[in-house]
Predict the 3D structure of the following.
Amino acid sequence: MPTTSPTIGVLALQGDVREHVAALTSLGVAAVGVRRRSELDAVDALVLPGGESTTIDKLLRAFELDGPVRERLAAGMPAYGSCAGMILLADRIIGGIDGQRTLGGVDITVRRNAFGRQVDSFETDLVIDGVADSATDPVHAVFIRAPWVEEVGPAATVLGRVEDGPAAGRIVAVRQGPLLVTSFHPEVTGDTRVHRLFVQIVRDSL
Ligand code: GLN
């Protein structure tokens, strides 16, 4: 068993960077913002936070990080994408703006702003496979202009779906090997169990 503790980067171009750093730090792992190639090279894994996927896409290119992040993902770097981060890690996107690209990695099609424009934000409780005790103590999930997963290819595994309301059945958490994506924002609730799942994925990859 490797004993080294991982360093997890949080892509720090836009979005909920501080909240992810705080959640990871509270779990006892080193967490640092990543804005440069040299910072990316120094981390074992990467969190892609929520924010605005079109903006993050543009900034990734402007900072010349899109190629290096793609290379790391192709080489097996674990990554966790929340909301806009889920969009960035999806292989296919519906409802993107003209020219919007994703980094890809997860064999899913996501629909941007899927829950409807009139409901910018909603909250619901979810059971998520791999998240400790969520069957008896569900994860309180916060969705903010969130995507859902419209289609899941054979390489990816569904971990969670919305249970009730108009979006019942919609897929909102998926894993593919070392890649984890959620439509919601676990970094804003103080419940660190989704981050704990990701830290375990990272530790298992070392
Ligand atoms: N709607 C945003 C997008 O398309 C995602 C929102 C979020 O990350 N909270 O990127």
DSSP finds six helices and twelve strands in the chain. The longest strand covers residues 106-111.
